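User: Could you write out the 3D structure of this protein bound to glutamine? I've included everything you need below.
Assistant: Certainly. Input first, then the structure.
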Amino acid sequence: MPRLRLALAQTNPVVGDLTGNSRQILAAATTASARGADILALGEMALSGYPIEDLASRPSFLAASRTAVESLALELEAAGLGELVVIVGHPDGPFEPRLLGTSNAPTAIAQNSASVLQHGRVQARYAKHHLPNYSVFDEYRVFLPGDELLVMRIKDVDVALIICEDLWRDGGPVGRVLEADAGVLIVINASPFERDKDEVRLPLVTRRAVETDTIVAYVNLVGGQDDLVFDGDSVVVDGRGAILARAPQFDEHLLVVDVDAASATDVTLPDAVHRVTLSARGGDAPDEERGVETPTIAELPDDREQVWNALVLGTRDYVEKNGFPSVILGVSGGIDSAVCAAIAADAIGADRVWGVSMPSRYSSDHSRTDADVLAEAIGFHYSTEPIADLVMPIESQLELTGTAAENVQARIRGIILMGLSNLDGHLVLTTGNKTELSVGYSTIYGDSAGGFAPIKDVPKLLVWELARWRNEFALSRGEVPPIPANSIDKAPSAELRPDQTDQDTLPPYEILDAILDAYVTRALGRDDVVALGFDPETVDFITRLVDRSEWKRRQGAIGPKISGMAFGRDRRLPITYRPSNAH
Ligand SMILES: Nc1ncnc2c1ncn2[C@@H]1O[C@H](COP(=O)(O)OP(=O)(O)OC[C@H]2O[C@@H]([n+]3cccc(C(=O)O)c3)[C@H](O)[C@@H]2O)[C@@H](O)[C@H]1O
Ligand SMILES: Nc1ncnc2c1ncn2[C@@H]1O[C@H](COP(=O)(O)OP(=O)(O)OP(=O)(O)O)[C@@H](O)[C@H]1O
Ligand SMILES: NC(=O)CC[C@H](N)C(=O)O
């Protein structure tokens, strides 16, 4: 059996940065070549970053992408890497437009493509067939589908190539892999992290390997892009479904593995298959001269560690890719701000985190002392800005009472954080969790003010779990646990009036999160939620709060998606909405 050495690079591109992303690809190619690889594959759109959204409708961006692919091929050749087959994803076009509406509507003129580079030029190109148009994906809006499977004959092995969603759909290119009798199937991906996604993704990869009787090499991007976090977790599986190699989650990594693939046959190719023959690296040099690559098979960490790592990477990449020197947040002694501060410190280092305690006349002693303990444990920059004297004049001049008065405190805190952000360039982190966002339990333009929301997709019960996990993790490494025990154990409170607790307004979090899971995540109607055994009045109260606060969410900051139903593009509902009966 011929042996191929595959290198899969989990790079972390920045959308639009064709020059920087090309540098990442060149670096991966240099290492892959030094390790004797025949083929280097990178994630979907590794050259442009993913998703490029309506940039795909700009001819100038497409022209720049084409130029970047051609330049990359020349640079590889100039660097002495021309023998290596490099598979790189990028948008391609412009093509004959598919009109989507009026003449002003965005028009699909691009394809989601992969170019095969060797000897200083593009040897072949593949265009993605299946354009996902659900959840966070809008590819049908901006891309034209491809209609041919690409097979590369290299070292007497037929290597088929497809792109991400193509693997998820029966029929189309994946259906033709078996007919083409390919020995290896390379899939380049931009597959965002979701809790439990691995329970779907890995079985899918192994199922396709068995169905198509090929070695499947699945390579995914890594890194944060706005609200998405790509987790890497690239994997190579043999035709019986056994894992041959697996890259770590959330890290840039080059996975190198030797595969013994079936020899190419002279089967008659189905119509929609294009085959190219590429020269073999190193000519006829015997495989033994390259030595043996011992493949790594990374273990997946447990659920809480995966989620923590996703939040940290999503936060870090938002800060770094948008050029912020530092972040700032209000620290109240409560669990949400404590967890956000710990995420921020893990993401960019405590010396780039600013925490501000902003006590009001209702702030408890423990809110200050717990914030002090947090600051000491994490070691971020810490200051105190009392707000009582700032709140008072507004309250009295406007004669505000009740919630109207309470919200002034949260808004003054927002003004302080935004003022310091304007002064020193910090990114403001807003600390709302998914439970609060679901029911609108935050003050608009107050504690919801901010540019990035690290825990916006984390329900309250999971916030507590993550806090406990992070502290245990610190202890297991002989480090100081970052989150004060008291912040975890005490009853949550907004402290906007004397002795307030969240449960004055909301049901216990065990019940609230369970109802939200049914209504928001599983999108059940009101009656179906009640049928799960919840008190009908509580269900009515909560579903009404959820519906009524859609407008607040629409104005809210983005934050890392960790679930299959994150607020934002996963869940698109009208703001103006009057349910006539149970929905
Ligand atoms: N459909 C719609 N479209 C556009 N705007 C709409 C709107 N519905 C209300 N509004 C506007 O929204 C205003 C009401 O919203 P908002 O000003 O936010 O105030 P509101 O939601 O009434 O009160 C804030 C709630 O969040 C709680 N809170 C505050 C701070 C922190 C925490 C915490 O523990 O995390 C909790 C607080 O205890 C209170 O229950 C209205 O006065 C109106 O201006
Ligand atoms: N005294 C305070 N000092 C500084 N920031 C505050 C203060 N009170 C509230 N904030 C800011 O407003 C946010 C929302 O307040 P809230 O009290 O709801 O959250 P929390 O204290 O972090 O968590 P919990 O909801 O568990 O109490 C806080 O996370 C914090 O960023
Ligand atoms: N980029 C894509 O085509 C991604 C779609 C795919 N179903 C995934 O999440 O992995």
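The first helix runs from residue 18 to 34.
User: Perfect, thank you.
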